[in-house]
């Protein structure tokens, strides 16, 4: 019997260097000792210094830090779009520094393609990886329904509200075949109410579908609600200031935001962020 798209008779993956079997015990992502500078008008501006962090398989991990401290740059490095000056990126134990195509990435300004229907936007990453369209569509429809976008499969992005577009962009990242998702401030453009709806939605979806996630946010509460661990970055050049393990069990409930330990962590993180902001010159 045919088993759907099979991994092609044991051939190695087409792209990238010949990769060994992924090590299932290794973390989904290991970033170690990353340094990066950009040059501006002949001056070298350090943006990231000695950044190391880990996302274990099926873990939700967040990064918070002041604007301009290099968070998006770190994502570009992890995604292989930018080469670090020093340091290494490993996924499932294999070195992937400078290699593209290993992550599912939702950039800070997620752009749906205006000429593709919502459904066709959502299946894009699968399509690029050679999945059969009809099968990808079927799965996309199920997720669109769960995301409250049922009935909008054939609509075009401009016909949807900002929050709905964001959910579609998020589903596109979720349905991408790569195991590790990088989400760069996915809710920052939304109004407060839509944002908190989206947080709950993401939490539910993630608890059902446990991907490995690295998430950038400015919202301390959002980071605490969603993450198992939070990395706190300094102002530019971004270095790792603190690592916070978030002790609340899953599934997480919104009531946890009233728990004394939640409030304590929130105060602590806010204090650190205020200190960094106060030190910071002009970001950007
Ligand atoms: N390609 C680039 N060339 C030059 N400078 C850059 C480039 N990308 C980012 N920067 C600079 O690096 C710093 C960090 O940017 P970014 O990673 O976007 O910060 P964050 O996402 O934390 O706000 C900023 O000062 C930004 O202007
Ligand atoms: Mg950014």
From TrEMBL:
Regions of compositional bias (Gly residues) in chain numbering: 1-11
Domain ABC transporter residues, every copy: 29-260
Key words of the record: ATP-binding, Nucleotide-binding, Transport
Xref: PROSITE patterns: ABC_TRANSPORTER_1 (PS00211), ABC_TRANSPORTER_2 (PS50893)
Region span, Disordered: 1-27
UniProt-listed Pfam families: ABC_tran
Name assigned to this protein: ABC transporter domain-containing protein
